[in-house]
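Model: Ready when you are.
Researcher: Fold this.
Model:
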Amino acid sequence: MSDPSAEKGTRFNLPERPEGCFAQIKPGPFFRPDKVDIVIVGGGMITNDQILPSIYHMQRGGQVGSIKICALNSAPLRALAENKKCETAFPGHAFEPFPGLDEPPEKMYPDLYKEVIASMGPGNMVVVAVPDHFHEPVIRAALEHDQHVLSVKPLVPSYAQAVEIEKLAHQKGLHVGIEYHKRFDRRALDARQQYRAGRFGEFRCGEAKMIEPYYYRHSNFQNWFTKENSDPFTYVGCHYVDLVYFITALRPVEVSVRGVEGKFPNGNVGYMWSSGRVVWENGAILSITDGLGYPDEGAGMNDQNLVMYCEGDDCGAIIKHNDQFRGVSHGYVDRESGAMFRYVSPDYFRLVAWDGEGLKPVGYGFESIEASVLSAIRVNASAAGLADAEALAARQKVIDDINARGIVATPANSSINELVTEAARLSIAAAGQTALIEYGNAPSVRLR
């Protein structure tokens, strides 16, 4: 499979659309200092659950102009358009679908995202929400057409690709954000501040876990989440690798991952479980357990947590985040949430009542997306009224500041994740053999 516009929730590799199916896409405005138009490439689960509601709310607030969503076929777009929860939360808001909703769902349009991106005026934003191994060509198409980018994590499979993206974006004065939303969890922000003030001493040993629901195996994951493309460690374990780096600023130096294979309902083979170990530059160890197997009838929508044991002067310290249970549990009279009893995490993403029309998104899932969109607007605004060379220099200065602050994940401040991903893929293919990360002028990975 090599189709970069395939997204979670569709099938791939069917005939392309005939030319001339659609009316000419009208070009949009560019480098406005107050808002951006958005093109979302990918119409699957994450777009439905987090991205589109967040973008709708920002459109309601005036920070986002038009919204287009491009998918491989019409089926996921129709599901998004008919989402009753979004209709209730954001009355009067809609997106422009590509392909159109009246197109037969069996027809595939693998290159349509290129046309939609090419139609945008410079300085708007492309949100990349396709399977992990298809990120790079979509990101590159966006940057080549002078668009800011927000990508779901991980950014790309290799460190070299991350560096290329960083350089190209900086040369053009464009913001690239990566949706590591745990950086915006107030627990993580507080832990980062307290750790860097010395209040936990030094991280020495810990463990993390993220087990996603079993029903993922029956979703479009079975078409792309195969051994050659991904594994649970790189898909969701990366959240906790990034989080430990975000809190401590320690760099990972060794990675070993062992996978447990299984078959999806369609017969494709993938890693259903993984057990990883990351060694950090101070010798600390983090064990990470991941998988697609949390019981669908379980109380949590998943199972996830982080524990970091630290040492001070003749004393111990601890950071412990129990992320799937935030002290709220609901027992329902229906199964709209998948089960009649659920732990509820309002801290990640919920649609709640507010003093405006409909509902509004709250939680760090929204704040992460909001931060990248506002970063792009801030970059544009810095160059308002300036000539070309001065405008580029002004945008680059803001980008450098965003990179240095290290809150919004960017290629410049989160590329240790690409090194870990690259090392993990080497290790899991070698049945858990340790992969080393070597820094210096040209960071690289190799099996020990």
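Researcher: Now this one.
Model:
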Amino acid sequence: MSIHHQTQSSGKGKNLGQASPGIFIASTGQHIGKTTTCLGVFSGIAKRTSKVGFIKPVGQEFVEIGNEARADKDVILFREKFQLTDDYLHMSPVLFPRGFTRDYIDEKVRVESLKDSISTSFAALQQNSDFILAEGTGHVGVGAIADLDNAVVAKLLNVPMVLIASGGLGSAFDSLALNKFACDRMGIKIAGVILNRVLDEKRDMIIDYMSRALARWDLPLLGAVPYSQILAHLRMDDYARLFKVPLLTGESHRYRYFNHVRLVATSNEVYEQLIEPRQLTITPASREDIIESTLAKYQESCNQSATPDLKPGIMLTGRYEPRADLVKRLADADIPMIYAPVNTFEAMQKITKHTAKIRIEDSEKVNEAIQLVENNTDIDELLNRVSG
């Protein structure tokens, strides 16, 4: 059976009591920044509470953790970052692997058994925690095809919900309305809203108007997390993972991020005028003139400063691999480079559609997320709303 649920109980999916208070965090859509927001909220609550537990009741992207067990990747992130000791099986009770929805419609899986696993796991965490943060999967309706959407799970756990929305106004409120309606039908209390990736130049306006708009529902705006280049931009490691290739050079800069991604289809003379700091250059491996110019520009930057700000990266594409001597020169210069055997158009298509997920290995991103969210979210008001 493709479904993964690892705990058993006689609870039969009934709503749990609140031996420990908690919250359920969901977003209004995909790629809103739910996990990064959860990191900061968890950290803030942990500073005010002696023992905080974490659960991802329903996961989709999982990692093998040995002994034929699996856990959602966000569970691994939280467990390692905050040195949690709870059992993986309780923190990640249900997973939806590929093909699960067909199995469910074919009645190979019963929703009551899934609810039972979630209830049992949550109850086990309650025994060792003063507060529990439950992270949802996507927007409130995700999982509806299996009768186990986020609203259903929040109702099962008997905890209020916090909604994470994009840092806009009109479209953000519209998305909030759709997700609120899904909560209302289940009688889910919403503790408040956190906006993510709010642009500095619009921050005061958005906080003012969104706060007044949310007052219609008697909901507070709990936070307005600023846009961060560090969190938004892909790293060299992200590109390597996306194309499933190794870094050929510059391993020490695996987590370098780039403000600019430039597909080079111009002459070398034009390219030399367009090289910017923190630029990922995408070009066929046959364009050795472009590689030479990047090396020369970087050397020039090094000669001008002990801490050069150019910080380039290179992605080579095409049928033919780069010559060994050029790879060695890039390695000697410590410039991160990958080679992907695809054409440049395919490469850009894939990059444009991709959103990187935060991982425990990228400590700079993890710490940036925690600091940004904590500093721009009213954790005390959130706790007051939950306890109220």
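Researcher: Key takeaway?
Model: Residues 7-15 have pLDDT under 50 and may be disordered.
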